[in-house]
Amino acid sequence: MSHASADSFVQSGIVARTLARRGRWRVPEILFWLAALASIWLLPDRHLILNEIAIIGLFAVSLDLILGYAGIVSLGHAAFFGLGAYTAGLIAKHFALDPVIGLVGAAATAAALGWVTSFLVLRGADLTRLMVTLGVALILAEVANQMAWLTGGADGLQGVIMPAILGRFEFDIFGTTAYVYSLVVTFVLFVIARRIVVSPFGLSLRAIRDNSLRARAVGIPVNARLIAVYTLSAAYAGVAGALLAQTTQFVSLDVIAFHRSADVLLVLVIGGTGYLYGGLVGAVVFKLLQDMLASITPQYWLFWIGLILIILVLADRDRLTARLTAAWRARATGPAGGAGPAGGPHATPASGER
Amino acid sequence: MLTILFDGVAYGMLLFVLACGLAITLGLMNFVNLAHGAFAMAGGYVTAILINRWGLPFLATLPFAFLVPAAIGLVLERTLYVRLYHRNHLDQVLFSIGLVFMAVAAVDWTMGSQQQFVTLPSWLKGRVDILGVQVGLYRSFIIVVCSVLVVALQLVLAKTRFGSRLRAAVDDPRVARGLGINVSAIFAITFAFGSGLAGLGGALGAEILGLDPTFPLKFMIYFLIVVTVGGTTSLTGPFLASILLGVADVAGKYYVPSFGAFVIYSLMIVVLVLRPQGLFARAR
């Protein structure tokens, strides 16, 4: 064994330890999920809206995977959400299968679409990606509209009756089962996503986001990584759509409309990109805002949403997010670490030698 | 067959006038302005209000349809857009979607959600038969007006002092500034002019495209397609793309009505995948 490879062996040990430390669960995170769990009992009459928050949160997490970590700007994420919703709705309507099987089916179809369209996204820069993702979503919305015999067209998919989850938990009118179900699914998928983004795979995504040319130069297979994360994100969005279809027992063209793609982008931006919790926090804030504004001006809440977007951008959301993540990381490294504001992989090995 | 071609060309010309402001902001200044359609809507509403409430003749409303959106564009550019030139595309997208949402809600609030109608003067209605081809008078009018605009624009960009300053400011703002060109003033004027043209396009197109508060969202994709498919290094690209899309759209809706909307989106995706820089652009 040459000296160089022994060196790199030691290095990879350090990297593995660093990654393991970064992947450790922090106290605030555990508190966050405990609060979510507690909401089941503490807010018993709010389960319908909480269910929506969990679903939007999962949808935003799926967008964060490609936007926050891989830097792919998408204006058509509703394509996967909608496909998942229709898949789950159709599975329930025609086969009356267990909702969990519906979730798997939705994830599979959405992932398939994500994989196919990821090749389109590889071409070109931001603007081309925006247009291509938007175009894919618009085409899919048109397909759903045209295939009325299958999707019900503008009237929506009617007569969806959801069997009990795992044959045991019936959906109730207060949305309690629905909320618990959505929360559990969101939590499980979140844990997986969290594991993925602190893995070497997740690190390589950030490298691609920051500078894809340099990432390629250090030997990261850029295209393969982007295809993988795009497919994964599509599957997540599909599951979120399936949850909505199953818990509301109804699917309409609304699930695939443009405003859904815009909404989820907004949700993620409110919460901040690139730290996964942004999607969840954004979902809570967005839903509460929507609830509040809609009760003041029922018809024109779009106006206020627009205003909030503009203010967010003018207030420099990047810096806001950076501050949030810096605070997060400072707490994450705890008293022992001094990862500093740069916090990148260069800074961590130094603080890693305990 | 020739009628479809004719209608398609008229439609394409209209698209170009609507989109050429965007071709400049997006194409030359590299700013993703999804709110472009809102300026077009403003022009359409100015014309509709002036005709329906004040009784002005159609032609007399057109200057206002240009000036009002241009003024709005100028104010917004100076106050808001100018802060975002150096931001990334995502910020620009979010900002302009915000503007669109506000415009849609504001128009819905003040004007109601129903469709607005623009009454055309009688000499623009009807069709005539030229060499066996049915030619709509209003569409011929659009073709004439738009052709004049296209030629004028091309001349301004290519031949005038302002045009060369604009091109310099776009290619390298720092050097242009060093040469004593007032880059920010040029950008402001260009932006206002582009917004004005969009407004004019909105007024001309209200009859064909329809006019209601969702206009900016409904046609946003068309404008973007024109610019991205046409490529962004010149105005010729977007112009040819507009004609191509106009004809494809009209022909698609006529021959395969159930696939009408697919034609244009699929065309865009195919073009972007094959030529990410646009159909008529040299790779930069």
TrEMBL record, chain A:
CDD domains referenced in this protein's UniProt entry, alphabetically: TM_PBP1_LivM_like
Topology versus the membrane: Multi-pass membrane protein
Keyword Oxidoreductase appears in the UniProt entry: no
Annotated TM spans: 25-43, 55-80, 100-122, 129-149, 178-203, 224-244, 264-286, 298-315
A Gene Ontology molecular function term of the record: branched-chain amino acid transmembrane transporter activity
Major subcellular location class: membrane
Region of interest: Disordered: 333-354
Entry's Gene Ontology cellular component terms: plasma membrane
Low complexity: bias regions: 344-354
Top-level taxon: Bacteria
Subcellular location: Cell membrane
Keywords: Cell membrane, Membrane, Transmembrane, Transmembrane helix
PANTHER family in the record: ABC TRANSPORTER ATP-BINDING PROTEIN (PTHR30482:SF17), HIGH-AFFINITY BRANCHED-CHAIN AMINO ACID TRANSPORT SYSTEM PERMEASE (PTHR30482)
Protein name: Branched-chain amino acid ABC transporter permease
The species this protein was found in: Prosthecodimorpha staleyi
